[in-house]
Amino acid sequence: MKIAVVGTGYVGLVTGTCFAEVGIDVTCIDIDQKKIDNLHKGILPIYEPGLEEMVSRNVSAGRLHFSTNLKEAIQDCDVAFIAVGTPPGEDGSADLKYVLAVARGIGESMNNYCVVVTKSTVPVGTAAKVRKELDDALAKRGAAIEFDVASNPEFLKEGAAIDDFLKPDRIVVGISSERAEEVMSRLYKPFLLNGHPIIFMDIPSAEMTKYAANSMLATKISFMNDIANLCEIMGADVNMVRKGIGSDARIGTKFIYPGIGYGGSCFPKDVKALIKTASENGYEMQVLKAVESVNDAQKEVLFDKVSKHFGGELAGKKFAVWGLSFKPKTDDMREAPSLVIIEKLLAEGSTVSAYDPVAMEEAKHSLGDRITYAKDPFEALVDADALLVVTEWPEFRSPSFEVVGKLLKDKVIFDGRNIYDPAELRALGFAYHCIGVKTAHKEPA
Ligand code: UDX
User: Fold this and answer.
1) Which of 50, 222, 333, 366 could hold 362 in an S-S bridge, CB 3.0 to 4.6 Å?
2) What is the ipTM of this complex?
3) Cβ-based neighbour number of residue 173 at 10 Å
């Protein structure tokens, strides 16, 4: 089989590389010449564990190609994936101009039957718009070439994207013809060996599935954050409550960890977009509106704890921040809670010294030189009034607390991810604040 993947961002690059890995001939296309030049040199636009080696292996094997030439790549293609960005517009709805421009480009270039698949997360109804662009472009050429459109949402987690792609829980494909179903079954066959299902459905349902999945996951998180906040007030321990409810298989143990709110490129954008789609169609997503507002508030919870601890006197104080990316194993800073927390500290006249294993370069785009960047976690602590743990990178999980205590001016830790044992820290003389845990440090009344 021969496929083209348009867009060499996160989704496109992982998709193209993983298909090449199972022996399919893949061309990844982007309009950004610099990106393509870099990819030829083995320089990736994103950080994802294992991806660099996989790209270079498949390029060497002659199965993975990079190009700016859509026309050439689309020739004799069986499947063309559209994996370009859908940035949120001012009003929260996904902007489809890149998706539709690519569809037009495909229509202007294709020379044989091809399944054109939307891989970007797009609102319900987008495949119909893609079909129209293709029809119009082909009509303009006077070409009578058959094609199908399909919707194939991705469920990749940053930091685990390769594994998620190679060993998916499920593959969802929206189709409207048997021919497209046959092509997509053949394409995904190598990924179904361990009994993972491919679920075919109509196109609008596939488009909706992506939003429903992300919104459900975001709902679990906001729900747990709400419970954690209430646990603190009522003297309960959210870690116990989490274990207690998670052992009910209907609820499950995953995605019920409270923290400082969800970030990243998917949850915030998709929740917003679904609320918007609903309201445009005369329906109010009441639960999701609450999910969003709980999340906005949760991003401020750690700052509020800092402010309370220091009696609102934050001017001139220095804070060490461990972790900047929205979650570990990625350099992605989009919607990262760290940005909200740091901006609030800076606005109070505090200084911040931050350390992140991979996201510091990305962070500079928004924080610039308004904070300092430490070369290791311990350097960030020197003379700081407190440590804030913002992202749960593995290397922060078990530091020498003796060294931490010596470097900090005062033994104070604010842990936004509940990664330490409150009893242990208390025994070591730390004031330890975390999220929803009964044994967390209590401010004197
Ligand atoms: C998510 C979905 O998991 C994935 O299926 C979809 O394709 C894209 O969106 P991703 O954004 O990479 O993936 O991150 P994920 O690991 O799901 O975490 C999202 C956010 O939720 C992070 O900010 C994380 O810190 C937060 N989170 C996650 C919690 O606060 N608590 C949890 O229990 C789990």
Assistant:
1) 333
2) 0.94
3) 22
Which of 47, 221, 223, 243, when mutated, tests ligand 1's pocket best, judged by the most ligand atoms within 8 Å of its CB? 221
Topology (CATH) of 2-201: Rossmann fold (3.40.50)
Residue closest by Cα to atom 31 of ligand 1: 257
What is the edge-to-edge ordering of all strands in the sheet holding 412-415? 372-373, 351-355, 318-322, 386-389, 412-415, 431-433
Q: CATH for 211-297? A: 3.40.50.720
pLDDT at 444 > cutoff 90? no
Nearest-atom index, ligand 1, CA of 260: 30
157 C-alpha to ligand 1 centroid (Å): 7
Query: How far apart are the C-alpha atoms of 94 and 125, rounded to whole Å?
Result: 12
74-83 pLDDT, tens digit per residue, is 999 999 999 9
Ligand 1 centre distance from Cα of residue 262 (Å): 7
Q: Which residues are annotated as a binding site?
A: 30, 35, 86, 121, 155-158, 210, 255-259, 263, 269, 327, 334
Q: Where are the domains of the chain?
A: 2-201, 211-297, 299-433
